[in-house]
Amino acid sequence: MAPRSSRQTGSHKARSLARQWKAKRRRRDLDQIHGDLQPDNAARLLHQEPDPDMPGSAQHYCLHCARYFVDLNSMKEHFKSKVHKRRLKQLSEEPYTQEEAERAAGMGSYIPPKKIEVQTQPLEMEESG
Ligand SMILES: [Zn+2]
Question: Could you read off the pLDDT of 100-127 as tens digits, one per residue?
Answer without folding.
Answer: 666 666 655 555 555 556 677 777 655 5
